[in-house]
Amino acid sequence: MSPQSFSLDDLSRCFEGSIPAALSTCSADGTPNVSYLSRARRVDDERIALSNQFMSKTARNLAENPHASLLLMDVISHDEFRLQLVYERTERRGKVFDQLRDDVDVLAALTGMQGVFRLRTADVFRVAQIEQVPPHPDFAATAQVGLPQAIASSALAALSARLTRCTDLDTLVEAVVDGIDQSLGHHHVSLMLLDEAGERLYTIASRGYPQQGVGSEIALGDGMVGMAAAQCTPMRVGSLRQASKYARTVRRSFEEHGEGPEREIPPPGLPDADSRMVIPAMALGQLVGVMVLEDARPLAFDEQSEAMLSIVAALVGTTIEAIRSEERLDAIDQPVATGPASGASRVAADARVRFYAVDGSVFVDGAYLIKGVAGRLLWLLLNAHARGQSDFTNKELRLDPSLQLPGYRDNFESRLILLKRRLDERELPMRIETTGRGRFRLEVDAVVRLEQGDATSDGSG
Amino acid sequence: MLDEQARAFFESACGLVIGLADAERRPYAQRGWGARVVDGRLRLVVPGDDPYLAELATPGAAIAVTGADVRTLRGLQAKGHVIALGPAAPADHAHMLRHCDELFDTIVELDGIPRQLVERMRPATYAVCEIEVESLFDQTPGPGAGRPTAEQQA
User: Fold this and answer.
1) Given a cut of 50, is residue A290 above it in pLDDT?
2) Residues 52-91 of chain B whose Cβ lies under 8 A from any Cβ of chain A
3) Which residue has the higher pLDDT, A342 or A359?
4) Is the N or C terminus of chain B more exposed, i.e. has fewer CB atoms within 10 Å?
5) Contacts by A191-194 with C-beta closer than 8 Å and gap 24+?
6) What is the pLDDT of residues A440-449, one digit of tens each?
7) Parallel, antiparallel, or unpaired: how do β-strands A349-356 and A446-452 relate?
8) DSSP string for B2-51
């Protein structure tokens, strides 16, 4: 074998990707065994840890004979390395185990296999030798392709300053996705907030996708996004196509059979994404939402970008909570003021709005618009508008029992902004215009027909 | 030992990894680049410029070969011993070319990896390792990984 000429530093990208590694072990009687494993992690300068989900024969061999040989691939250059290993120990808890467990959990989440496909143990090996498997000499490496771009601290400072100048939620969520796109150079991003019950995330803003997906939802713990939120831990995958191969096959099968949820807004997503990073936004130890970033290139996000975006997420979380707290205080202080419905001078078309009280879902001209608190809010506003009211205050609406807001954490402003953005996204003849702090006007440019169950009423804009 | 199903699997464009071991039972992993079943034995194309592989793959040496379908991740492991390591016949060469082309096409299609990068894995020189297969194991990731195949159990 050739002498060692590589260190684990040289193999850093091998530990980021999801190309399955191949591990060869050998039993006491000298019979080799070859199995694939999903993840390898660097432990320190001399050791690596390998995930063990199903490798029972490997475990038996290592108990008899500590030597192993591993083929590991750089996900960017496709350089392959052979590591000669000596098994040292098995861990079932601790930092190394937790890191590998998170890696495996992300892979499992991509295929809906949480709780089934999970890490049993983390096997720690000392690296005795590293050599590169000689690549074909006629094909040069293009190792620089797709390397993560470093985020300049000046760009982070500029974005931070911009976020701290935001005084309302609508401005803030736009500044977040625009700033990450323009200032930090990550062009596909969405911001999701936690709902009132703390059970689901909903998209409030996105950038860089054909569909904004405002109002799309993901349950906490569901998939990579839901899992990062549930665990309040950043998660990233650097070769999503590899990792989600199986998941895409299953999804395609569902779509071919015309099955799947119909009344859901699909979350924004790049069809050819190869990297994804989910960063939870926290405030006062509580989850506020998550930022989801995607890139078509492999390994587009690294530890540096995760750290930088975590700073942004922390700022976003605390700013959102500060805005919410201030608006709740305003709601207590401000007098309730209402105004008559705006004139129908710009009436352009009819709109049929159908409301289902069971889940607050609203359909406009037969097409699903929104559900939950935002749906009930729209229904409340349109009924009030039909009675002649177009100016509203957050305070009066927050107190309306028909919205079914929880008393302790209502997130009313978030739902109002969600509704506003969803109406804008769909370019409907009704929109919400801010008229002051905690005040807004419902503009309706159509004759609206309101329908609920068997009951039907007419309202005009 | 190699039934029709196993033969079809190993002759398909699956990813192949072999394991050998030295006298001190230190294992050594290397890739294979296409296999044919001839006279009941596996003829596996391996890199021809790996002197350590040549040192280990002596007649009688224990060897393991795991194949993985890159589309379905279904895996199968054959264990047996080396009959001989020697130069490739023209049919082995032709099979290796087809194997690499088809495998690399699938990787490019499924994973979006540039062809030039995938081509770096293609062996510059090659040899053939003839293997007598003695046992087969399901190597598909999951709770059944490592179990003898149903055919073998029957």
Assistant:
1) yes
2) 52, 62-66, 68, 71-73, 75, 77, 79
3) A359
4) C
5) A191/A289, A191/A290, A191/A291, A191/A292, A191/A316, A192/A218, A192/A225, A192/A229, A192/A289, A192/A290, A192/A291, A192/A292, A193/A288, A193/A289, A193/A320, A193/A411, A193/A414, A193/A418, A194/A220, A194/A229, A194/A287, A194/A288, A194/A289, A194/A411
6) 999 998 889 9
7) parallel
8) --HHHHHHHHSS-EEEEEEE-TT--EEEEEE--EEEETTEEEEEEETT-H
Give chain A positions within 8 Å (CB) of B120.
78-79, 135-136, 139, 141
Distance of CA A407 to the CA centre of its chain: 27
| Residue entry with tokens 């280990």 | B56
Chain segment A28-85, per-residue pLDDT in tens? 999 999 998 878 889 999 999 998 766 688 989 999 999 999 999 987 888 899 999 9
Higher-pLDDT residue of A302 and A105 is A302
pTM of the model: 0.70
Q: Between A32, A79, A140, which is nearest B62 by CB?
A: A32
- Do the chains contact at B145 and A55, CB–CB below 8 Å? yes
**Nearest chain B alpha carbon to A141:** B117
Residue whose tokens read 């009066």: A396
Phi, psi of A2, deg, nearest 5: -75, 155
Chain A interface test: which of B113, B129, B131, B147 (most A C-beta within 10 Å): B113
**Pairwise CA distance, residues B23 & A424, whole Å:** 72
Residue A346 has pLDDT above 70, yes or no: no
Is ipTM > 0.90 here? yes
Q: At what angle do helices A303-333 and A412-426 cross, to 10 degrees?
A: 110
Percent pLDDT > 70 in chain A is 80
How many C-beta atoms surround the C-beta of residue A128 within 10 A? Answer: 15
